[in-house]
């Protein structure tokens, strides 16, 4: 049987290498939201190495994360302890539903005609809505349209099949292919390892792959695809694996 | 009291001079659809002069209309007789409803997302529909959407007020201002003249102003404006004046 940690790490690096700083944010965010514990530099190094990244790069990555206000660190003798900063934790909590929640679908979607010369118009979308641009003056918007600017022309699509060019744009924006790949990878994890570090690494890797994809995928595009979208199966697969691994144990953070 | 023929002719030439060939088509089309009679060159000359155009230009205009297949002419001694050709009459009949009918509104309208690189896409609209382009990939389409190309994204607008930029585009395409002006001009005709040539000239002028506007105005834009559009009042005013003048009399065509 293959090492599931390695399998997952390889699948996630297939297209681009994992970014160390980003993996650290995933890890410290996961720990921070569940227990507010610090993680020792020793554990982080071991974890990073287990995942297949260079622990030598840790010092620089931690330094930058601290400089940019993402983490707070303290030393106790020769050991450093790290935790997400309160402002970074707030950002993690802002996308809590999307990453950890049971579902993140927006209800309903509309076609939107944008006024001429409305550059970056979708930035004006109110909270609880999302939009995907099809062309300069044409977008699809999902969620409660109440706060949508008055000078947008809204219309509800009928029941015709989506034209290919719309479907292609939406499938792309909803990261269908990547969700399907991640689902297959996550489902390929069969027997779980026993060692705390292995379980921790598996949890961080699965969460990292899911988190970066869930935050990249466009919720409006997902709403247009509806119940058939690949994101739903992927969310289920990731949450199931995390449930099998169980929540973060304090012992995982102390080991190494 | 002012001469109503002159008033109407001046109002119609306010923005651009009347085109002689176009006035002849209006006149011969009107005669052709009601009685299939020919009109003598003498009557046409008198009519054209009464309207305020140069009768000297008649020969060239008639020659060109004949060359381009719009009219058929024959001579009887020194007098020429002219009528619209069958193919031109067909074109007049094709827009009969729009010009002479009680109403020409299309039912319902939708917002349409056009595929990328769909140049002149609105040329693909099936009969019984019309479209107005708002921007490169965004249009409004009125009429039965059944035959609309499959790769157009259709959506029915909700009950929000039309955004200003949409309303402005639609008001412009529906010739609101011009219809309102023509309505006022037509309504300013009070007492009708008795002389056959005067009545004929008034009928041709009113019809000509109405016809060129009705054929220029975008039916999709009119459908979007709905029951408040200026076209409706203008149609009523023109049809009322034409009813007051009565149908074309054979005697009008023989006089001069």
UniProtKB/TrEMBL annotation, chains A, B:
Protein name listed in UniProt? PaaX family transcriptional regulator
Query: Residues in domain Transcriptional repressor PaaX-like N-terminal?
Result: 22-85
Taking every annotated instance into account, which residue ranges of this chain make up the domain PaaX-like ferredoxin-like?
111-153
InterPro entries linked to this entry? PaaX-like_ferredoxin-like, PaaX-like_N
Please cite one Gene Ontology biological process associated with this protein: DNA-templated transcription
């Amino acid at each position: 049987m293959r090492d599931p940690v390695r399998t997952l790490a390889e699948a996630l690096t297939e297209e681009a290498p994992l970014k160390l700083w980003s993996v650290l944010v995933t890890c410290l965010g996961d720990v921070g939201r569940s227990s507010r514990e610090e993680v020792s530099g020793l554990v982080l190094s071991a974890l990073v190495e287990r995942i297949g990244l260079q622990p030598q790069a840790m010092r620089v990555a931690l330094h930058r994360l601290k400089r940019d206000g993402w983490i707070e660190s303290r030393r106790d003798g020769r050991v450093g302890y790290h935790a997400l900063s309160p402002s970074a934790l707030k950002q993690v909590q802002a996308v809590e539903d999307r990453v950890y929640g049971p579902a993140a679908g927006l209800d309903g979607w509309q076609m939107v005609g944008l006024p001429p010369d409305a550059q970056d118009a979708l930035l004006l979308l109110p909270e609880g809505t999302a939009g995907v641009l099809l062309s300069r003056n044409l977008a699809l918007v999902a969620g409660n349209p109440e706060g949508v600017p008055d000078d947008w022309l809204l219309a509800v699509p009928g029941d015709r099949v989506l034209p290919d060019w719309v479907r292609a744009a939406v499938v792309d924006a909803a990261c269908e292919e990547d969700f399907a790949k991640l689902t297959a990878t996550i489902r390929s994890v069969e027997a779980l390892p026993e060692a705390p570090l292995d379980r921790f690494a598996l949890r961080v890797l699965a969460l990292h792959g899911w988190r970066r994809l869930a935050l990249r995928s466009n919720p409006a595009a997902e709403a247009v695809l509806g119940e058939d979208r690949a994101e739903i199966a992927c969310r289920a697969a990731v949450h199931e694996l995390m449930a099998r691994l169980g929540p973060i144990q304090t012992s995982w953070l102390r080991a190494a």
